């Protein structure tokens, strides 16, 4: 692909579609897909990924983390008939502002309820606006402040479903044990408790709600608990999530080599000059830095792929540019493409293993700045 840019990110629509269809094949038939596009779609571009999802009909719902993301999706992308769920906390004042600014598209907005007081304030807002605020209630197995407790939900069920200003159209949980419980025993115990809660809900109430508890880390381990919908973030982007290697990377971070030259050992290359042990080195320069992708700062051992070879850095990373040590190579030339993520040698798994990082932070590797242009392939 010919891209006339100094640095860019390639986003593969085919890989995105493949990953979501793989997830769909693993869960129960008829299970909805909620595509999680918070955090600028994990660095893949908020509106760009949403447009891909819409064009290919890949998800029944999308989820964002901030009110600003919700408003941007509602106002800047096509109304495809799919709801947008705000997973993050927003109080009644912020939600009222969002509803006003979204205009007619506000009908697609769904908000999360985090506590009984939060629910009551949103109910008052709905009554005052003479419209029902659509919500998914978050429930939490622990008393952690991240949702109504299971027992509290059971005790207040009648109050919740009789509220005049609220339309409870969903209920969800988030099990943190799924990230660290290698034996899966703790997660399974928590799923059984969640299942017990769901089975205790009155039938007419249950029929009104979309229930979801599974995220990417659970899709490949507990597909029997897919309920009505699964939330897919890291799996959608092909990042590490316990998939066993069946997913495809969606992102490739690229930069064009703009200079190749031999330098003396005492030639400064970065903010802090470090003498090289060799008398001369060959250096390739690319116009990409830590202000474009944080993965450059979180790695102790940064490698770059150029052609079929993997090269180390020659010095510290700068804000805007990169020095690559290509000594003893005659294959690197101006105009070549350097790949930082998304090809063999620089996959998320290889970067994580090489730097002794925890796999649950694989999504951090794909976080990219807005200024690093996304090219949707």
Topology:
Layout: E1 7-11, H1 13-26, E2 32-36, H2 38-42, H3 46-56, E3 61-64, H4 67-76, E4 83-86, H5 92-102, E5 109-113, H6 116-129, E6 133-140, E7 148-149, H7 150-155, H8 157-161, E8 166-173, H9 177-180, H10 185-200, H11 203-206, E9 210-212, H12 216-219, E10 229-232, E11 251-264, E12 280-286, H13 295-298, E13 303-306, E14 309-312, E15 322-325, E16 337-341, H14 348-354, H15 362-365, E17 374-376
Parallel strand pairs: 1-17, 2-3, 2-10, 3-4, 4-5, 5-6, 6-7, 6-8, 8-9
Antiparallel strand pairs: 1-11, 11-12, 11-16, 12-15, 13-14, 13-16
Helix pairs in contact: 4-5
What does it look like?
The chain is an alpha/beta fold and 377 residues long. Helices cover 32% and strands 24% of the residues. It contains 15 helices and 17 strands. The chain has helices spanning 13-26, 38-42, 46-56, 67-76, 92-102, 116-129, 150-155, 157-161, 177-180, 185-200, 203-206, 216-219, 295-298, 348-354, 362-365; strands spanning 7-11, 32-36, 61-64, 83-86, 109-113, 133-140, 148-149, 166-173, 210-212, 229-232, 251-264, 280-286, 303-306, 309-312, 322-325, 337-341, 374-376. Helix 6 links the parallel strand 5 (109-113) and strand 6 (133-140). Helix 4 (67-76) runs parallel beside helix 5 (92-102). It is elongated.
CATH hierarchy, class of the largest domain: Alpha Beta
Fill in the CATH topology of the largest domain: TIM Barrel
Tally of extended strands? 17
Number of helices: 15
Name of the CATH superfamily of the largest domain: Alanine racemase
Count of the domains: 2
- Radius of gyration (Å): 24 Å
Residue-averaged pLDDT:
92
Largest sheet: 9 strands, parallel
């Amino acid at each position: 692909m010919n891209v006339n840019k100094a640095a860019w990110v390639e986003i593969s629509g085919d890989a995105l579609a493949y990953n979501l269809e793989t997830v769909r094949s693993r869960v129960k038939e008829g299970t909805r897909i909620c595509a999680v596009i918070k955090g600028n779609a994990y660095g893949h571009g908020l509106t760009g990924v949403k447009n891909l999802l819409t064009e290919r009909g890949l998800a029944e719902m999308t989820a964002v983390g901030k009110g600003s993301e919700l408003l941007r999706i509602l106002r800047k992308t096509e109304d495809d008939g799919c709801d947008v769920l705000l997973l993050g906390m927003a109080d009644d004042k912020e939600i009222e502002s969002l509803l006003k600014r979204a205009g007619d598209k506000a009908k697609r907005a769904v908000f999360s309820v985090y506590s009984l007081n939060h629910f009551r304030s949103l109910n008052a807002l709905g009554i005052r606006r003479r419209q029902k605020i659509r919500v998914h209630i978050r429930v939490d197995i622990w008393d952690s402040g991240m949702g109504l407790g299971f027992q509290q939900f059971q005790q207040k069920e009648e109050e919740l479903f009789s509220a005049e200003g609220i339309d409870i159209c969903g209920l969800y949980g988030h099990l943190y044990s799924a990230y660290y419980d290698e034996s899966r025993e703790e997660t399974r115990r928590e799923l059984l408790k969640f299942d017990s809660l769901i089975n205790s809900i009155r039938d007419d109430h249950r029929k009104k709600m979309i229930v979801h508890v599974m995220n990417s880390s659970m899709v490949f381990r507990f597909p029997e608990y897919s309920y009505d919908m699964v939330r897919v973030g890291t799996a959608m982007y092909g990042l590490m999530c316990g998939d066993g290697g069946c997913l495809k990377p969606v992102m490739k971070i690229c930069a064009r080599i703009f200079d190749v030259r031999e330098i003396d050992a005492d030639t400064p290359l970065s903010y802090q000059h470090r003498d090289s042990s060799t008398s001369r080195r060959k250096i390739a320069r690319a116009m990409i830095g830590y202000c474009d992708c944080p993965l450059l700062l979180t790695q102790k051992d940064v490698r770059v792929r150029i052609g079929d070879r993997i090269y180390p850095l020659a010095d510290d990373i700068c804000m805007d540019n990169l020095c690559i040590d290509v000594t003893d190579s005659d294959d690197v030339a101006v105009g070549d493409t350097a790949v930082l993520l998304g090809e063999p040698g620089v996959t998320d798994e290889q970067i994580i293993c090489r730097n002794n990082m925890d796999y649950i932070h694989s999504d951090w590797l794909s976080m990219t700045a807005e200024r690093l242009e996304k090219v949707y392939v």
